[in-house]
Write a structure and sequence with these properties.
This protein is an alpha/beta fold. It has one domain: Nucleotidyltransferase, domain 5 (2-Layer Sandwich), CATH 3.30.420. 36% of the residues lie in helices and 28% in strands. The protein is built from 12 helices and 16 strands. Strand 2 (22-29) and strand 3 form a beta hairpin. It is globular, with a radius of gyration of 20 Å.
Amino acid sequence: MISLPFLRRKGSTVGLDIGSSLIKVIEIDHAGPRPKVTHFGLTKLPREAIVEGEIMDRDLVIGGIKECIAKAGVTGTEVVSAISGRAVIVKKVVMDKMSSEDAQEAIFWEAEQHVPFDIDDVCLDFQILKDDIGANQMEVLLVAAKKDMVNMHAGLIRDAGFTPVVIDVDSFAVQNCFENGRGSVGEDDTKKVIGLVNIGSNVTNINIIQDNSPHFTRDISIGSDNFAEAIQKELGVDYEEAQRIVSGDLGSRDSAKIRDLVKQGSKDLSLGIERSVSFLKAAGDAEKIDEIVLSGGGANIPFLKEILSEKHGIELSIHNPLAGVEFEPGVFGEHEAQIDKIASLLTVGIGLALRKAGRA
């Protein structure tokens, strides 16, 4: 099952973010005036568990899920998780104007024209973005994911002893977290075209939004590991040292050299942003991106924010997913002292935990 934005209800939700190198668990209580983080867990996966987004060792991943949820102290069994990558297609389409009930049937015929997979091999979901764009038509966000990927992801969670009540899409979780922390905004802010760029270990999610509506969403096979591998090769350091450098711990190393390596490594990421802008222009949705917000573990790669800002002439910032939630001192345990440094890692997990099963 895939789900687009859905209802929030009283109670709590557990967000389970299974990354290529880290598993994150966040439980959020929705009963108060603001969402409140009540449990948190973080577990590092061995390098051989997931390689380039492919699960190589199920037992290691299942063990990581169990360990992470145990660390968090979560007692419930229901979780909200997410998928991303090339097997996920997100696309805006134009359909004849109809009710949501009728669209539920028609979306399968529409998807056949836009999804590059056999329609019998995908899970589908949709959301009506604009119910009237003229000429008796409406604009719909179509989401498709290959069934084998969805089933594999859900199977991992079930084999770990938990129930996946919703399987979402990473980029939507990022958007949900961003909008939650955004708070009250003026009309000028809603008109801004904002690029949400979530940099994971192996995959970067790009979601271009305006007025809470996605214009363009794509995943590219570039992540912080690409930067770490380049640093490891050029500086002759081991993997752990390269990861520390990518995380911002330069020590006494030549910062100019590191900046040059990051600049070289950012070319493919920049190309992904450029192509997103080109798509927006071609579709007539927008002429430019006004702002880019980085999140994920790669958001803190040294000099990356400044390099991308210079390259694209766009204001960049690093998202703080904790800005829109409350939490008690100590909830992040051993990571409390580093919470400002690792906060961007929590964007997807918090975005998932801000959701609740049930369609709007």
